[in-house]
């Protein structure tokens, strides 16, 4: 299908904003996916096109975080392949189980995440030392595989769950956890793009212009994260969680 010049311009604007939000706290799909659906694309094509452009955003943010020294190399060696495998597994699983089954559970988990971030007392997770390397890689691999599978299966809140998982289990502050999350985001996006492209469910003439905007927005968002630190990430994560709760709650009420 074709989109008009005005529609493509609006999609690129949405991708620019989504790239920034996604780099900081995840949740960029809340902005781009409804915009893609609004053009009249079938749902599966909109999903594929969204992944086709978002993979560039996760790559951009990952490069910026890596240059800032925030990405843990010893963790990335495990989290990237496990995130990739998890996303493939989740995408295969969606063929047998309807994603709608997960909505009530995800809604509860998101509320729990919001409460954890809003009311947590004491020193931030980043003040704790990392666990020993074998345990670090074991826990990191498990988080990457589980959330990568969730991203391939359903998706909403993936970046948020990764940030909270890494900060809680590995002792990383929210800023570092956001950087580590981009490794898994990039891996799961690659898996999704390969699958959607193979199934011919990806409109590259729409995805590539959006990708330029997404890449730019993600670079800006990652830069703001580096400058703003944990406080900025916490605020944006809370905002994204609130938006996800509203969206999923609305979807459930509307059946």
The amount of helix comes to over 70%
- How many strand units? 0
Please report the distance between the alpha carbons of the first and last residues.
28 Å
Using the alpha-carbon principal axes, give the shape.
globular
Number of helices: 9
In N-to-C order, the SSE pattern is: HHHHHHHHH
Low-confidence stretches: none
Strand pairing plus helix content: what structural class? Answer: mainly alpha
Biggest pleated-sheet summary: none
Radius of gyration: 17 Å
| Average of the residue pLDDT scores | 86
Question: How would you describe the overall organization of this protein?
Answer:
This protein is mainly α. Helices cover 80% and strands 0% of the residues. The protein has 9 helices and no strands. It has helices at 5-25, 29-38, 43-67, 73-93, 103-119, 133-153, 158-170, 174-198, 204-253. Helix 3 crosses helix 9 and helix 4 (73-93) runs parallel beside helix 6. The chain is globular. The two termini are 28 Å apart. The mean pLDDT is 86.
Question: Could you give the topology of this structure?
Answer:
Layout: H1 5-25, H2 29-38, H3 43-67, H4 73-93, H5 103-119, H6 133-153, H7 158-170, H8 174-198, H9 204-253
Helix pairs in contact: 1-2, 1-3, 1-9, 2-3, 3-8, 3-9, 4-6, 4-8, 5-9, 6-7, 6-8, 7-8, 8-9
Care to give the gist of this entry?
This protein is mainly α.
What labels describe this entry?
9 helices, mainly alpha, 80% helix, 255 residues
């Amino acid at each position: 299908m074709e989109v008009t010049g005005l529609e493509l311009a609006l999609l690129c604007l949405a991708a620019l904003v989504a790239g920034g939000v996604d780099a900081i706290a995840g949740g960029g799909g809340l902005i781009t996916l409804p915009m893609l659906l609004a053009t009249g694309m079938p749902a599966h094509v909109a999903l594929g096109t969204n992944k086709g452009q978002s993979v560039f955003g996760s790559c951009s943010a990952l490069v910026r975080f890596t240059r800032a020294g925030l990405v843990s190399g010893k963790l990335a060696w495990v989290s990237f392949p496990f995130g990739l495998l998890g996303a493939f597994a989740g995408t295969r699983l969606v063929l047998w189980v309807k994603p709608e089954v997960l909505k009530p559970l995800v809604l509860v988990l998101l509320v729990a995440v919001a409460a954890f971030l809003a009311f947590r007392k004491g020193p931030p997770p980043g003040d704790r030392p990392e666990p020993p390397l074998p345990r670090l890689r074991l826990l990191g691999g498990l988080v990457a595989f589980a959330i990568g599978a969730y991203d391939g299966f359903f998706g909403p809140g993936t970046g948020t769950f990764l940030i909270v998982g890494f900060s809680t289990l590995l002792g990383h502050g929210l800023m570092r956890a956001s950087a580590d999350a981009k490794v898994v985001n990039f891996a799961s996006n690659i898996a999704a793009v390969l699958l959607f492209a193979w199934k011919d469910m990806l409109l590259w003439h729409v995805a590539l212009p959006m990708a330029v905007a997404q890449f730019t927005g993600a670079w800006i968002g990652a830069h703001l994260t580096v400058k703003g630190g944990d406080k900025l990430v916490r605020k944006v994560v809370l905002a994204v969680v609130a938006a996800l709760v509203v969206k999923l709650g609305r979807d459930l009420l509307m059946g």
